[in-house]
Amino acid sequence: AMSIKKAAKIANAFVGDGLRQSTAHELGRKGRSRDFWRWMKLPFDPYPVELPLNKSGLDPHVVMENTNFVLPSDMLAELDICVFGPEGHTSLATYWAKECADFMQKIKLNQADAAFAIPLFLHEDGVPSFKDESYSFWSWSSLSRHQSAYSRAFVVGLPSSRVLPSTRATICDVLAWDLANLAKGVRPTHDHRGRVLTGNRAKLAGKAICGGYTAHFAWWKGDMEARVSAHNLMTRCKLICDLCLATADRRLSYGDFSSSALWRQLQGGVSDEADQSHWLPVPGYSRSRILLDSMHLLNLGTMRDIIASALTSWLLLGILQKHLGTGYNEVNKALHRFTYLGKQWAKTVGEELNIKELTRAKIGMPTSGMVLKQYPELDSRIKDQCDASTALFKLHLDAYQFLALDSLAKGRLLWHLRPKFHYSDHLLQWAKSSKMNPQAVSNFMDEDHMKFMSRTGARIHIMFSILVLLMNRGESPPCNSQYGVRETVYSEKINAIFETEPTRRTR
Length: 507
Known about the structure:
Order of helices and strands: HHEEHHHEEEHHEHHHHHHHHHH
Shape: globular
Radius of gyration: 27 Å
Structural class: alpha+beta
Low-confidence stretches: 369-382, 475-507
Strand order of the largest sheet: 5-4-3-6
Distance between the termini: 30 Å
Number of strands: 6
Number of domains: 3
Strand content: 5-15%
């Protein structure tokens, strides 16, 4: 490893050649970040798995490639002392006491052992990484004591363009094998394909994984796109929902939220017998263990329609302009003023409101050409709080349905009924029956974790280091057909700094 003194000399030499001082500081900071990941590799060896992956090129085909996995059992073995210490026993027993008895029987967990059983939340999703590529990540979080579920652990990440259905099936087979070992609490003697383990893993065979603890699959998490890919729902593409028979047809309209809606009376969801999910081999998995994500359904889904439609209605009626003291036709000025006052209010009450200035285009306010000419058919575990919340949310859906009908009758493109409103109704019914807070199991932290992994992978890539350095020096690297940067013989100091210090990915 390069000494700090030598690294400082190299950095000063670059600054003398014209490199920005801020970039030199970034080199040092990213080096410390990379040292953390080097440390993370020390406690255990990654688990190599032969994955079927798509090979792009002139002749696309499937290849088998060795891919390293960070198994949940390996992470739990290292973290059981600091995360799942004696303080976790009470909260674990409390969690399992509220769990469904049928599920407890399915995973063969007794209440007597519940204080030492860790529930695992498995997450699957994708995140954009480059201009024309995204990465698919599999990760997990665990619950033991207060706020311990906020920590996420990475399993494997792959370019989404290379992921095949057989890839997902193999990943789930590996997770099923590892979770079966965690349920026993003992290290295995054979790998996921039944072959005898060798090397360091063979030496650990038969030993306890994380003290006296076991771990069990509890829930699957992911957004709507990941839900389709992970559970093979492509065959239901003509239907709106995988939990019922709701469609865009008037008789089974997904926009009907009344208690007498026909889709409520028909059992048309995917049954356990017809389930073709890749997660079927995982011990404890069933259709009922798939969570609906409140982040994508509410915060990033239906809320944008509600807020935009409310603002547009106020603007069309002149209410917002009158309140802010602007002219009726000064729509953008009123929205700018509204954004400014909203940020001031948020600052006063101690809330965060990180939004850019609103404009007519951003809220999708209809112009004269966007008005309809014809009228198409309308295609916590605390009981009292849960009942009150679900009742208010049901009132909200009924009110939204009324506004959508009224808007259509007046020929206005407002209060649009998306399928996510229908899924929100299912989320409401699940919260009412399970008495669980949907926000507590939403994907906010999982999404942040994926973005962090994507940024980390990009920043330590050698090609990004080369590009950033050349751009900061004012040079434009010529491209070749394979790497995008001409192969050049760099000086000793450039090679030395690339070996030790990664740079920030350019935007």
